[in-house]
Amino acid sequence: MVVRPMNDASQGSSSTPRRRSKQNFETWSWFFMRISGLVLFFLALIHFSLTHIFTDVTQTTVAFVAKRWSNPLWRVFDWLLLALGLLHGNNGLRFIMDDYIRTPRRRAFTKAAIYSLSFALFVLGTITIVTYKGTL
Amino acid sequence: MTVTDQSSPQIDSHEAEVKVHLKIKRYNPEVDTRPHWQEYDIMLKPGDRVLDALHAVKWKFDGTLSFRRSCAHGVCGSDALVINGENKLACVNLIRNIGTDLTIEPIRGLPVIKDLIVDMEPFFAQYRSVLPYLIANDDPGYKERLQSQSDREKYDDTTKCILCACCTTSCPVYWANDEYVGPAAIVNAHRFIFDSRDQATTERLDILNQKSGVWRCRTSFNCTEACPRGISVTKAIEEVKRAILYDRV
Protein backbone atom coordinates (compact mmCIF):
# COMPACT_ATOMS: atom_id res chain seq x y z
CA MET A 1 0.00 0.00 0.00
CA VAL A 2 1.36 3.38 -0.97
CA VAL A 3 0.09 6.37 0.96
CA ARG A 4 1.22 9.75 -0.27
CA PRO A 5 2.80 11.81 2.49
CA MET A 6 0.71 14.79 3.51
CA ASN A 7 3.15 17.63 2.92
CA ASP A 8 0.41 20.11 2.14
CA ALA A 9 -2.05 20.98 4.90
CA SER A 10 -4.83 21.67 2.40
CA GLN A 11 -4.77 18.04 1.27
CA GLY A 12 -5.62 16.76 4.71
CA SER A 13 -9.38 16.96 4.40
CA SER A 14 -11.14 13.82 3.17
CA SER A 15 -14.18 15.91 2.24
CA THR A 16 -12.39 17.45 -0.77
CA PRO A 17 -14.89 17.07 -3.63
CA ARG A 18 -13.67 14.66 -6.30
CA ARG A 19 -13.16 16.26 -9.70
CA ARG A 20 -15.61 14.72 -12.14
CA SER A 21 -14.22 12.65 -14.94
CA LYS A 22 -14.89 14.26 -18.31
CA GLN A 23 -16.25 12.35 -21.26
CA ASN A 24 -14.48 13.32 -24.45
CA PHE A 25 -14.76 12.69 -28.20
CA GLU A 26 -13.46 9.12 -27.82
CA THR A 27 -16.12 8.33 -25.19
CA TRP A 28 -18.96 9.50 -27.40
CA SER A 29 -17.45 7.94 -30.49
CA TRP A 30 -17.57 4.55 -28.72
CA PHE A 31 -21.12 5.20 -27.53
CA PHE A 32 -22.16 6.26 -31.05
CA MET A 33 -20.78 2.98 -32.45
CA ARG A 34 -22.90 0.99 -30.00
CA ILE A 35 -26.13 2.87 -30.71
CA SER A 36 -25.66 3.28 -34.48
CA GLY A 37 -24.67 -0.40 -34.77
CA LEU A 38 -27.93 -1.39 -33.12
CA VAL A 39 -30.03 0.97 -35.26
CA LEU A 40 -28.21 -0.07 -38.45
CA PHE A 41 -28.90 -3.73 -37.70
CA PHE A 42 -32.65 -3.11 -37.98
CA LEU A 43 -32.40 -0.56 -40.82
CA ALA A 44 -30.26 -2.89 -42.95
CA LEU A 45 -32.43 -5.91 -42.15
CA ILE A 46 -35.62 -4.08 -43.17
CA HIS A 47 -33.95 -2.68 -46.30
CA PHE A 48 -32.64 -6.10 -47.29
CA SER A 49 -35.95 -7.91 -46.74
CA LEU A 50 -37.88 -5.24 -48.72
CA THR A 51 -35.57 -5.23 -51.72
CA HIS A 52 -34.58 -8.90 -51.82
CA ILE A 53 -37.16 -11.05 -50.01
CA PHE A 54 -40.61 -9.39 -50.13
CA THR A 55 -39.86 -8.01 -53.58
CA ASP A 56 -37.89 -10.16 -55.95
CA VAL A 57 -34.61 -8.47 -56.77
CA THR A 58 -35.53 -8.46 -60.49
CA GLN A 59 -38.58 -6.36 -59.60
CA THR A 60 -36.53 -3.81 -57.63
CA THR A 61 -36.73 -1.24 -60.42
CA VAL A 62 -36.99 2.53 -60.80
CA ALA A 63 -40.77 2.14 -60.57
CA PHE A 64 -40.40 0.25 -57.30
CA VAL A 65 -38.17 2.99 -55.86
CA ALA A 66 -40.52 5.73 -57.13
CA LYS A 67 -43.50 4.08 -55.48
CA ARG A 68 -41.66 3.62 -52.19
CA TRP A 69 -40.20 7.14 -52.16
CA SER A 70 -43.63 8.71 -52.77
CA ASN A 71 -43.86 8.36 -49.00
CA PRO A 72 -41.35 10.83 -47.49
CA LEU A 73 -40.89 8.55 -44.46
CA TRP A 74 -39.17 5.97 -46.68
CA ARG A 75 -36.86 8.75 -47.90
CA VAL A 76 -35.98 9.52 -44.27
CA PHE A 77 -35.46 5.78 -43.66
CA ASP A 78 -33.07 5.46 -46.61
CA TRP A 79 -31.25 8.69 -45.73
CA LEU A 80 -30.74 7.39 -42.16
CA LEU A 81 -29.34 4.14 -43.57
CA LEU A 82 -26.97 6.14 -45.77
CA ALA A 83 -25.85 8.60 -43.08
CA LEU A 84 -25.48 6.11 -40.22
CA GLY A 85 -23.83 3.54 -42.48
CA LEU A 86 -21.22 6.05 -43.64
CA LEU A 87 -20.61 7.51 -40.17
CA HIS A 88 -20.41 4.09 -38.49
CA GLY A 89 -18.18 2.73 -41.24
CA ASN A 90 -15.90 5.76 -41.22
CA ASN A 91 -15.49 5.70 -37.46
CA GLY A 92 -14.59 2.01 -37.66
CA LEU A 93 -12.09 2.77 -40.43
CA ARG A 94 -10.65 5.61 -38.33
CA PHE A 95 -9.81 3.07 -35.61
CA ILE A 96 -8.32 0.62 -38.10
CA MET A 97 -6.26 3.36 -39.77
CA ASP A 98 -4.96 4.58 -36.37
CA ASP A 99 -3.93 1.02 -35.50
CA TYR A 100 -2.41 -0.20 -38.73
CA ILE A 101 -1.00 2.86 -40.51
CA ARG A 102 1.96 3.76 -38.37
CA THR A 103 3.63 6.61 -40.29
CA PRO A 104 1.85 9.94 -39.56
CA ARG A 105 2.14 11.13 -43.16
CA ARG A 106 0.67 8.01 -44.73
CA ARG A 107 -2.04 7.97 -42.06
CA ALA A 108 -3.04 11.57 -42.77
CA PHE A 109 -3.11 10.88 -46.52
CA THR A 110 -5.23 7.71 -46.16
CA LYS A 111 -7.64 9.40 -43.74
CA ALA A 112 -8.04 12.39 -46.08
CA ALA A 113 -8.78 10.07 -49.02
CA ILE A 114 -11.28 7.90 -47.10
CA TYR A 115 -13.10 10.84 -45.52
CA SER A 116 -13.31 12.74 -48.83
CA LEU A 117 -14.69 9.71 -50.64
CA SER A 118 -17.25 9.12 -47.88
CA PHE A 119 -18.28 12.76 -47.90
CA ALA A 120 -18.73 12.65 -51.69
CA LEU A 121 -20.88 9.52 -51.35
CA PHE A 122 -22.92 11.20 -48.62
CA VAL A 123 -23.55 14.32 -50.73
CA LEU A 124 -24.39 12.27 -53.83
CA GLY A 125 -26.77 10.02 -51.86
CA THR A 126 -28.44 12.96 -50.11
CA ILE A 127 -28.98 14.82 -53.40
CA THR A 128 -30.48 11.68 -54.94
CA ILE A 129 -32.86 11.09 -52.03
CA VAL A 130 -33.97 14.73 -51.77
CA THR A 131 -34.32 15.55 -55.48
CA TYR A 132 -35.64 12.22 -56.82
CA LYS A 133 -38.76 12.84 -58.92
CA GLY A 134 -39.72 9.29 -59.85
CA THR A 135 -38.27 9.22 -63.35
CA LEU A 136 -34.85 8.59 -64.75
CA MET B 1 20.36 -26.10 3.15
CA THR B 2 19.06 -28.97 1.08
CA VAL B 3 17.65 -28.04 -2.27
CA THR B 4 15.07 -30.45 -3.55
CA ASP B 5 14.48 -30.54 -7.29
CA GLN B 6 10.75 -30.26 -7.71
CA SER B 7 10.78 -29.07 -11.29
CA SER B 8 9.24 -32.30 -12.59
CA PRO B 9 5.92 -32.95 -10.85
CA GLN B 10 5.18 -36.58 -11.62
CA ILE B 11 1.60 -37.66 -11.21
CA ASP B 12 2.43 -41.30 -11.92
CA SER B 13 6.12 -42.16 -11.64
CA HIS B 14 5.56 -45.37 -13.64
CA GLU B 15 4.15 -43.53 -16.63
CA ALA B 16 5.89 -44.49 -19.85
CA GLU B 17 7.85 -41.78 -21.59
CA VAL B 18 6.60 -40.47 -24.92
CA LYS B 19 8.42 -38.86 -27.80
CA VAL B 20 7.83 -35.13 -27.88
CA HIS B 21 8.58 -33.14 -31.01
CA LEU B 22 9.51 -29.53 -30.32
CA LYS B 23 9.67 -26.73 -32.87
CA ILE B 24 11.14 -23.62 -31.29
CA LYS B 25 11.56 -20.17 -32.80
CA ARG B 26 15.20 -19.21 -32.25
CA TYR B 27 16.85 -15.83 -32.60
CA ASN B 28 20.34 -14.80 -31.63
CA PRO B 29 20.77 -11.07 -32.32
CA GLU B 30 24.59 -11.46 -32.56
CA VAL B 31 24.41 -13.99 -35.40
CA ASP B 32 20.93 -14.05 -36.95
CA THR B 33 19.36 -11.42 -39.14
CA ARG B 34 15.91 -12.94 -38.64
CA PRO B 35 14.37 -15.62 -36.41
CA HIS B 36 14.43 -19.25 -37.57
CA TRP B 37 12.85 -22.53 -36.46
CA GLN B 38 14.81 -25.30 -34.80
CA GLU B 39 13.40 -28.76 -34.09
CA TYR B 40 14.15 -31.24 -31.31
CA ASP B 41 12.91 -34.71 -30.40
CA ILE B 42 12.97 -35.56 -26.71
CA MET B 43 11.50 -38.19 -24.38
CA LEU B 44 9.16 -36.93 -21.64
CA LYS B 45 6.41 -38.29 -19.43
CA PRO B 46 2.85 -37.15 -20.23
CA GLY B 47 2.70 -35.59 -16.76
CA ASP B 48 5.69 -33.33 -17.52
CA ARG B 49 5.12 -29.68 -18.28
CA VAL B 50 6.03 -27.69 -21.37
CA LEU B 51 8.66 -26.01 -19.18
CA ASP B 52 10.22 -29.44 -18.56
CA ALA B 53 10.48 -29.87 -22.32
CA LEU B 54 12.37 -26.57 -22.57
CA HIS B 55 14.58 -27.61 -19.64
CA ALA B 56 15.30 -30.94 -21.34
CA VAL B 57 16.39 -29.17 -24.52
CA LYS B 58 18.52 -26.61 -22.68
CA TRP B 59 20.14 -29.05 -20.25
CA LYS B 60 20.67 -32.04 -22.55
CA PHE B 61 20.81 -30.81 -26.16
CA ASP B 62 21.44 -27.11 -26.60
CA GLY B 63 22.63 -24.91 -23.76
CA THR B 64 22.25 -21.77 -25.87
CA LEU B 65 18.43 -21.92 -25.81
CA SER B 66 17.24 -18.90 -23.81
CA PHE B 67 13.92 -18.54 -22.06
CA ARG B 68 12.62 -16.90 -18.87
CA ARG B 69 11.28 -18.78 -15.91
CA SER B 70 11.40 -18.15 -12.22
CA CYS B 71 9.00 -19.82 -9.80
CA ALA B 72 7.96 -22.48 -12.33
CA HIS B 73 4.59 -22.90 -10.59
CA GLY B 74 2.31 -20.41 -12.32
CA VAL B 75 2.75 -17.64 -9.78
CA CYS B 76 5.48 -15.33 -11.05
CA GLY B 77 4.30 -15.08 -14.65
CA SER B 78 7.79 -15.20 -16.22
CA ASP B 79 7.31 -17.97 -18.76
CA ALA B 80 4.44 -16.76 -20.92
CA LEU B 81 4.98 -18.16 -24.42
CA VAL B 82 3.02 -18.81 -27.57
CA ILE B 83 2.50 -22.57 -27.32
CA ASN B 84 0.83 -24.12 -30.37
CA GLY B 85 -0.50 -20.71 -31.34
CA GLU B 86 -1.99 -19.78 -27.99
CA ASN B 87 -0.56 -17.67 -25.17
CA LYS B 88 0.08 -19.92 -22.19
CA LEU B 89 2.42 -20.32 -19.23
CA ALA B 90 4.93 -23.09 -19.95
CA CYS B 91 4.96 -24.12 -16.27
CA VAL B 92 1.27 -24.97 -15.82
CA ASN B 93 0.53 -26.83 -19.05
CA LEU B 94 1.22 -30.56 -19.21
CA ILE B 95 2.34 -32.52 -22.27
CA ARG B 96 -0.73 -34.71 -21.63
CA ASN B 97 -3.05 -31.76 -22.28
CA ILE B 98 -1.10 -29.88 -24.94
CA GLY B 99 0.03 -32.86 -27.05
CA THR B 100 3.36 -34.25 -28.17
CA ASP B 101 3.81 -31.84 -31.08
CA LEU B 102 4.83 -28.49 -29.65
CA THR B 103 5.42 -25.25 -31.51
CA ILE B 104 6.88 -22.64 -29.21
CA GLU B 105 7.39 -18.95 -30.01
CA PRO B 106 8.04 -15.81 -27.96
CA ILE B 107 4.93 -13.77 -27.07
CA ARG B 108 3.95 -11.32 -29.81
CA GLY B 109 3.92 -7.54 -29.87
CA LEU B 110 7.08 -7.04 -27.79
CA PRO B 111 10.66 -6.87 -29.15
CA VAL B 112 12.54 -10.18 -28.96
CA ILE B 113 15.86 -9.99 -27.10
CA LYS B 114 16.97 -13.59 -27.68
CA ASP B 115 15.12 -16.83 -28.53
CA LEU B 116 12.00 -16.87 -26.30
CA ILE B 117 12.93 -13.81 -24.21
CA VAL B 118 11.15 -10.56 -25.03
CA ASP B 119 11.76 -7.03 -23.77
CA MET B 120 8.98 -6.52 -21.19
CA GLU B 121 9.78 -2.83 -20.61
CA PRO B 122 7.08 -1.41 -22.96
CA PHE B 123 4.57 -3.64 -21.16
CA PHE B 124 5.66 -2.49 -17.70
CA ALA B 125 5.77 1.17 -18.82
CA GLN B 126 2.12 0.85 -19.84
CA TYR B 127 1.37 -0.86 -16.52
CA ARG B 128 3.00 2.01 -14.59
CA SER B 129 1.09 4.61 -16.63
CA VAL B 130 -2.25 3.69 -14.96
CA LEU B 131 -0.98 4.38 -11.40
CA PRO B 132 -1.27 0.75 -10.23
CA TYR B 133 -1.06 1.45 -6.48
CA LEU B 134 -3.40 2.64 -3.75
CA ILE B 135 -3.66 6.41 -3.60
CA ALA B 136 -5.32 7.75 -0.46
CA ASN B 137 -4.37 11.21 0.72
CA ASP B 138 -6.46 11.41 3.87
CA ASP B 139 -5.09 10.35 7.24
CA PRO B 140 -7.09 7.40 8.59
CA GLY B 141 -5.57 7.99 12.03
CA TYR B 142 -4.69 4.91 14.04
CA LYS B 143 -7.24 2.83 12.14
CA GLU B 144 -7.23 0.51 9.20
CA ARG B 145 -9.01 1.46 5.99
CA LEU B 146 -12.02 -0.78 6.40
CA GLN B 147 -14.00 -2.18 3.50
CA SER B 148 -17.20 -4.19 3.28
CA GLN B 149 -17.20 -7.65 1.73
CA SER B 150 -19.38 -6.47 -1.15
CA ASP B 151 -16.98 -3.57 -1.87
CA ARG B 152 -14.06 -6.02 -1.86
CA GLU B 153 -15.97 -8.30 -4.21
CA LYS B 154 -16.14 -5.61 -6.94
CA TYR B 155 -12.46 -5.92 -7.85
CA ASP B 156 -11.74 -9.42 -6.58
CA ASP B 157 -11.25 -10.85 -10.08
CA THR B 158 -8.66 -8.26 -11.09
CA THR B 159 -6.48 -8.81 -7.98
CA LYS B 160 -5.45 -12.17 -9.48
CA CYS B 161 -3.22 -10.67 -12.20
CA ILE B 162 0.39 -11.91 -12.20
CA LEU B 163 1.59 -9.56 -14.99
CA CYS B 164 2.62 -12.41 -17.28
CA ALA B 165 1.52 -10.39 -20.35
CA CYS B 166 -0.43 -13.34 -21.81
CA CYS B 167 -3.48 -11.07 -22.29
CA THR B 168 -1.74 -7.99 -23.67
CA THR B 169 0.37 -9.95 -26.16
CA SER B 170 -2.66 -11.91 -27.39
CA CYS B 171 -4.49 -8.69 -28.29
CA PRO B 172 -4.61 -8.02 -32.06
CA VAL B 173 -4.88 -4.28 -31.42
CA TYR B 174 -1.71 -4.39 -29.30
CA TRP B 175 0.19 -6.28 -32.01
CA ALA B 176 -0.52 -3.48 -34.46
CA ASN B 177 -0.57 -0.45 -32.20
CA ASP B 178 2.02 -0.21 -29.43
CA GLU B 179 0.41 2.98 -28.10
CA TYR B 180 -2.55 0.98 -26.72
CA VAL B 181 -2.09 0.50 -22.95
CA GLY B 182 -3.25 -3.09 -23.33
CA PRO B 183 -5.54 -5.38 -21.33
CA ALA B 184 -3.11 -6.01 -18.43
CA ALA B 185 -2.74 -2.29 -17.65
CA ILE B 186 -6.54 -1.87 -17.73
CA VAL B 187 -7.03 -4.89 -15.45
CA ASN B 188 -4.61 -3.39 -12.95
CA ALA B 189 -6.29 0.01 -13.20
CA HIS B 190 -9.65 -1.73 -12.62
CA ARG B 191 -8.25 -3.25 -9.43
CA PHE B 192 -7.86 0.27 -7.96
CA ILE B 193 -10.67 2.12 -9.77
CA PHE B 194 -13.23 -0.15 -8.09
CA ASP B 195 -11.45 -0.17 -4.71
CA SER B 196 -13.60 1.87 -2.30
CA ARG B 197 -10.48 2.91 -0.32
CA ASP B 198 -8.76 4.48 -3.32
CA GLN B 199 -9.10 8.19 -4.07
CA ALA B 200 -7.53 8.48 -7.53
CA THR B 201 -10.36 6.96 -9.54
CA THR B 202 -10.83 10.12 -11.62
CA GLU B 203 -7.14 10.33 -12.53
CA ARG B 204 -7.12 6.70 -13.69
CA LEU B 205 -10.35 7.11 -15.65
CA ASP B 206 -8.89 10.22 -17.32
CA ILE B 207 -5.78 8.22 -18.31
CA LEU B 208 -7.88 5.40 -19.76
CA ASN B 209 -10.31 7.80 -21.47
CA GLN B 210 -7.68 8.60 -24.11
CA LYS B 211 -7.25 7.39 -27.65
CA SER B 212 -4.67 4.89 -26.36
CA GLY B 213 -6.89 3.78 -23.47
CA VAL B 214 -9.94 1.53 -23.15
CA TRP B 215 -11.54 2.72 -26.41
CA ARG B 216 -8.97 0.86 -28.48
CA CYS B 217 -10.44 -2.42 -27.17
CA ARG B 218 -12.58 -4.08 -29.82
CA THR B 219 -13.71 -6.97 -27.60
CA SER B 220 -12.04 -9.77 -29.53
CA PHE B 221 -11.90 -11.72 -26.23
CA ASN B 222 -8.36 -13.06 -26.97
CA CYS B 223 -7.25 -11.68 -23.59
CA THR B 224 -9.96 -13.50 -21.64
CA GLU B 225 -9.07 -16.79 -23.36
CA ALA B 226 -5.34 -16.29 -22.80
CA CYS B 227 -5.40 -15.36 -19.09
CA PRO B 228 -3.81 -18.23 -17.11
CA ARG B 229 -5.50 -16.95 -13.95
CA GLY B 230 -8.98 -17.07 -15.46
CA ILE B 231 -9.60 -13.32 -15.09
CA SER B 232 -12.58 -12.06 -17.12
CA VAL B 233 -10.35 -9.46 -18.77
CA THR B 234 -12.83 -8.23 -21.40
CA LYS B 235 -15.49 -7.83 -18.71
CA ALA B 236 -13.11 -5.72 -16.61
CA ILE B 237 -12.37 -3.52 -19.65
CA GLU B 238 -16.10 -3.09 -20.32
CA GLU B 239 -16.66 -2.13 -16.66
CA VAL B 240 -14.04 0.60 -16.99
CA LYS B 241 -15.67 1.82 -20.24
CA ARG B 242 -19.03 2.05 -18.49
CA ALA B 243 -17.47 3.81 -15.48
CA ILE B 244 -16.17 6.49 -17.88
CA LEU B 245 -19.39 6.73 -19.88
CA TYR B 246 -21.73 6.93 -16.88
CA ASP B 247 -19.23 8.84 -14.73
CA ARG B 248 -19.93 6.33 -12.03
CA VAL B 249 -17.92 3.57 -10.37
TrEMBL record, chain A:
Membrane-spanning residues: 28-53, 73-91, 112-132
Keyword annotations from UniProtKB, A to Z: Heme, Iron, Membrane, Metal-binding, Transmembrane, Transmembrane helix
Domain of life: Bacteria
Gene Ontology terms: cellular component: membrane
SUPFAM superfamilies found in the cross-reference section: Fumarate reductase respiratory complex transmembrane subunits
Pfam families: Sdh_cyt
Location of this chain's protein in the cell: Membrane
Predominant subcellular localization, coarse grouping: membrane
Region (Disordered): 1-20
GO molecular function, one term: metal ion binding
Name of the protein in question: Succinate dehydrogenase/fumarate reductase transmembrane subunit
Annotated organism of origin: Acidithrix ferrooxidans
Species classification: Bacteria, Bacillati, Actinomycetota, Acidimicrobiia, Acidimicrobiales
Automatic annotation (TrEMBL), chain B:
A GO molecular function held by the record: succinate dehydrogenase (quinone) activity
The enzyme's E.C. designation: 1.3.5.1
Annotated 2Fe-2S ferredoxin-type domain residues: 29-110
Pathway: Carbohydrate metabolism; tricarboxylic acid cycle
Swiss-Prot/TrEMBL catalytic activity: a menaquinone + succinate = a menaquinol + fumarate
Residue ranges of domain 4Fe-4S ferredoxin-type in the record: 151-181
Protein name, per record: Fumarate reductase iron-sulfur subunit
Native species: Acidithrix ferrooxidans
Keywords linked to the UniProt accession: 2Fe-2S, 3Fe-4S, 4Fe-4S, Iron, Iron-sulfur, Metal-binding, Oxidoreductase, Tricarboxylic acid cycle
Top-rank taxon: Bacteria
GO biological process, one term: respiratory electron transport chain
Protein family (similarity comment): Belongs to the succinate dehydrogenase/fumarate reductase iron-sulfur protein family.
Cofactors that this protein relies on: [3Fe-4S] cluster; [2Fe-2S] cluster; [4Fe-4S] cluster
Cofactor note as given: Binds 1 [3Fe-4S] cluster. Binds 1 [2Fe-2S] cluster.
Pfam families recorded: Fer2_3, Fer4_8
